[in-house]
Amino acid sequence: MYTDDDLEQAVEKGIFSRPSVAQFRDFIAERDNTHAADEEDFRLITSFNDIFVVIACLLLLLSAGWVIQGTSAALSAAVVAALSWGLAEFFVRKRKMALPAIVLLVTFVANVFTAIVLLFGFPDEKAFMLAGLGATIAAWLHWTRFHVPITVAAGAAAAVAFVLAGLIYMLPALRDHLNSLMFVGGIAIFLLAMVWDAKDPKRISGRSDVAFWLHLTAAPLIVHPIFSNLGIFEGNQTPLDLGIVLLLYLVLTVISLVIDRRAFMVSSLIYVLAALTQLLDTYGLAGDSFAYVGVVIGMSLLLLSGFWHRARRVLVQALPDGWQRRLPEVA
């Protein structure tokens, strides 16, 4: 299977001409009645061998970490991080395997973060600050070596952790405003994602994959503080709270349509399900409320998926021309 990145590299090396590649993409889009930008493609798996390699890598990493854990938990995490980098040298740099690249990046950055936290003491804001800084640097080094799209999102998340921990360390009173700080961090990552999206409005290069993972990282940081402050999981919703939840979900849906990213809808879905279920339980549908909610929400999402292109075209065409040029193309 060949990706858009492969086609772009072939054009750069003179194997194919750019017009012929553009005609090929148009032909595939017309044949499949779809469009790359509106389908939000990203590389996750190249073959079943990816799954086979991931299983083997996880077995090796978990076993190695378990053996060394008795000596030192911090050393165990550091060894797993080192092994993750070593495995990436072959399976990512040489073999260009998609799923192992994602898994090995996550195990590398997560274990660098864990090793530093355990080394400097848990729980402690200073330890989290140093761990966030170390994980950010580790993600940057990994990016310069392997260029795995998810690396930028991992580095951005680590940087947000570093900044939040640093602020709380210097100003302990900010601990009571953690949700607000998370929200600001999510907005920062969202803006970074939009910068990457603007570099590739046709979504035919790896920049789109980078933006996808950044959006997927930003969405929970933005959505969770909003719905958490409404007390969705505390069981005290009122019809007014439900109205606010549905209004917020509508706003997030519009944003998802405009930027052509479904991450916000998926991230906020659990909150909408919880709020509707709780309200129906309160007003006499206990036991079956989740089923009713699931039917309604599921049908609405399927309808939106079927008419995604039309709805997006209407919204985007209503925006100023300058905004439209920065957004992904409309099918």
**Structural shape:** globular
Radius of gyration in whole Å, from Cα? 22 Å
What is the helix/strand order? Answer: HHHHHHHHHHHHHHH
The helix fraction, in percent, is: over 70%
Query: What ranges have pLDDT less than 50 throughout 5 or more consecutive residues?
Result: none
Q: Could you tell me how far the N terminus lies from the C terminus, measured between alpha carbons in angstroms? A: 23 Å
Q: What does the largest sheet look like?
A: none
Oligomer: single chain
- H/I helix tally: 15
**Can you count the beta strands?**
0
Instruction: Output mean pLDDT.
Output: 84
- How much strand content do the residues show? under 5%
Sheet/helix structural class: mainly alpha
Molecular structure report:
- This protein has helices at residues 4-12, 18-32, 36-39, 48-69, 73-91, 98-120, 125-146, 150-170, 178-199, 206-229, 239-259, 263-282, 289-306, 308-317, 321-326.
- With 331 residues, the protein is mainly α.
- It is globular and about 55 Å long.
- The two termini are 23 Å apart.
Outline:
The chain is mostly helical. Helix content is 77%, strand content 0%. The protein has helices spanning 4-12, 18-32, 36-39, 48-69, 73-91, 98-120, 125-146, 150-170, 178-199, 206-229, 239-259, 263-282, 289-306, 308-317, 321-326.
